[in-house]
Design goal:
globular, CBS-domain, alpha/beta, four-stranded antiparallel sheet, 374 residues, six-stranded mixed sheet, Rossmann fold, 15 helices, single chain
Length: 374
């Protein structure tokens, strides 16, 4: 696992009389995802590009593990830093394999190591190497190309990764899937990431720390997402984060943070009379032989004895996983006629049920953050 700290020390970048970035100081700990967010013209992308010297600071220092990037040969520096942009930037006349292998080849890795790394990364981003390795970018969907762009940026195990609006060019459904995919990948690899977006919801979801920047290149607040939502530093941050700060906090908690309850359950094929004798609950959750939920059965509508099958169930209850955010779970519960969600584990097996009351209690009980160190 390759990680590095990134630090901005009183960094400024002047474009004529106006400063694109003014006196920026912040520290990104190794392994964190730091999201730079703010309106257009606030210096987010300029700050990002100063890390790999696509833009050079007018004053101050950008340090990677304590070393000033201006003291490092620019080619050497860029080969140590992954870079993902909104337009992906894959080489159109190279195969997916060759695209991902670009930097390892430049670094002189042996072929066997390159082959293993490309295969590993394609599998990590959820693409079948046998299916996509010899295809060209135009033969993949936009979401698949964006995943390949992430894989190419991570190919040489960079300690730092820069991402500039990486998911902005895809539709909302694909965007959410890519966000989740990247967070899963980050949990596996732990690279230090600087991530630019203009979307505060994306910043809160993706960042372990969020830097809110104002027009004119000033840092308004740098804090973990929960602190940003609970204690905005000034009126600008409060307005930018939005009046629905409480709802946004639900994106920082997931179903695993909630005290789940157990439902009355029965097995597909179990006798209806036997189920009624065992419980006086009005509904039971029907499970198959693998503990996967089929749906709820209304016991008052069962007549006589005999095996209970899937045809007796009401499948309308939402299904959520332990990793579903409470915001998504709340949305599903409010949209459903059955306001109890069935929770399943990573294999789709029954793990408990989630109610609106339990969701509310978890939200109210969430601890307030300690103040961040900038």
């Amino acid at each position: 696992m390759s990680q590095a700290t990134v630090e901005f020390r009183h960094v400024s970048k002047q474009y004529g009389p106006q400063g694109a970035v003014v006196d920026l100081s912040l520290l990104v700990p190794a392994g964190d995802i730091c999201v730079l967010v703010g309106p257009s013209g606030c210096g987010k992308t300029t700050s990002l590009k100063m890390v790999n010297r696509l833009v050079e600071p007018t004053s101050g220092q950008v340090l990677i593990d304590g070393q000033d990037v201006m003291s490092i040969d620019v080619t050497t520096l860029r080969r140590r830093i992954g870079y993902v942009i909104q337009q992906v930037g894959l080489f159109p006349h190279q195969t997916i394999f060759d695209n991902v292998a670009t930097v390892p080849r430049l670094l002189g890795w042996p072929k066997k190591r390159i082959d293993a790394r490309v295969t590993e990364l394609l599998e990590l981003i959820g693409l079948d190497p046998a299916r996509v390795a010899e295809r060209y970018p135009a033969q993949l969907s936009g979401g698949e190309r964006q995943r390949v762009g992430v894989a190419r940026a991570m190919a040489a195990e960079p300690p730092v990764m820069l991402m500039d609006e990486p998911f902005g060019a895809v539709d909302p459904i694909v965007r959410e899937r890519l966000q989740n995919e990247f967070l899963r990948l980050h949990r596996t690899l732990g690279t230090t990431v600087l991530f630019v977006t203009h979307d505060i919801d994306e910043a809160i979801k993706m960042g372990t720390r969020v830097a809110v920047m104002q027009v004119g290149g000033h840092l308004a607040q740098y804090a973990p997402p929960t602190e940003l939502l609970l204690r905005p530093a000034n009126d600008f941050v409060a307005r930018f984060v939005g009046v629905d700060r409480g709802l946004k906090r639900l994106s920082l908690l997931d179903v695993s943070d909630v005290g789940l309850t157990d439902a009355e359950t029965a097995r597909i094929g179990e006798d209806g009379d036997a189920i009624r004798r065992r419980t006086d609950a009005p509904y039971v959750l029907l499970l198959d032989a693998d503990d996967k939920p089929a749906g709820w059965v209304n016991l008052s509508q069962l007549r006589g004895s005999g095996p209970v099958g899937p045809e007796a169930v009401d499948p309308s209850s939402p299904i959520v996983t332990l990793e579903t955010t409470l915001r998504d779970a709340l949305a599903m519960l409010l949209a459903s006629a059955v306001q109890t969600a069935v929770v399943v584990d990573e294999r789709g097996r029954y793990a408990g049920v989630l109610t609106l009351d339990a969701l509310g209690e978890a939200f109210r009980a969430a601890p307030e953050p300690e103040a961040a160190v900038v």
